[in-house]
Design a protein that fits this description.
single chain, 7 helices, elongated
Length: 237
């Protein structure tokens, strides 16, 4: 049994590098536009509240999560928009852009946006795939190599690969959800006069950089799935 596979590095190192670059770009853009104050002076929380209320989503609460950093998200089960301190408290281009993006998810939820519903439905299966799939696959290889239980090990390993497949599908489904939320955010921020045209360019820069992280995540999930398919197919021969 091979415990170190150079093929894994060949597959994953490029996506790891892309992931690092994408994350660095997000931090750079956010840091840059976190220094640019908006003309109206609304904080991220205030901008999100205006977007939600104008669209009749008075029951969606906004909560500030502790600490700093981009931990912003919309929880459709609790109907809560959670914003980090850097976003909730500051009247900057970066803050209102991120807050409006999360408000965009609330609008998707209210409208029954199909990709969001699909992504939410997949969460339990994806948690299984991301947490248990590696152990299941390794367990399958172990049964083949040590106990010579070829058929059983092969079947167990493929179960883990299916788990990885769910993660890959989830990552792909996430792309239209995130892109649509950003499109809604940019449209409404300008439509509601929260930002002007110049500030909208900064919002676009921040949200476009964030979008690339989801593209890279989807690519990484697909590449990792392909690796395990090839690895398992090779073990069959």
């Amino acid at each position: 049994m091979v415990f170190f596979d150079p093929l894994f590095l060949l597959f994953m190192i490029p996506t790891m590098i892309l992931g690092f670059v994408a994350q660095a770009a997000v931090k750079s853009k956010f840091s840059k536009y976190a220094k640019v104050r908006t003309m109206r002076g609304l904080t991220g929380a205030q901008a999100a509240r205006e977007i939600l209320d104008t669209n009749g989503l008075y029951d969606v609460r906004i909560e500030e999560v502790g600490g700093k950093g981009l931990g912003d998200h919309y929880d459709p089960r609790a109907r809560v928009l959670r914003l980090s301190q850097d976003v909730a408290r500051h009247p900057t281009v970066a803050a209102v852009g991120v807050a409006a993006h999360e408000a965009g998810h609330a609008l998707q939820h209210a409208a029954g946006y199909a990709p969001l519903k699909l992504r939410s439905a997949m969460v339990p299966a994806v948690q299984f795939g991301s947490n248990l799939a590696p152990m299941i696959i390794i367990g399958g290889f172990f049964l083949q190599a040590v106990f010579r239980l070829t058929q059983l090990g092969y079947a167990i390993a493929w179960t883990g690969v299916i788990g990885y497949g769910l993660v890959a599908v989830f990552s792909v489904v996430t792309l239209p959800v995130e892109l649509d939320a950003s499109a809604r955010a940019k449209k409404l921020l300008y439509q509601y006069n929260i930002v002007d045209k110049q500030e909208l360019q900064g919002v676009s820069a921040v949200l476009n950089a964030a979008a690339w992280t989801y593209v890279v995540a989807a690519l990484a999930a697909i590449v990792q799935l392909l690796y395990w398919v090839l690895r398992l197919s090779g073990s069959r021969r």
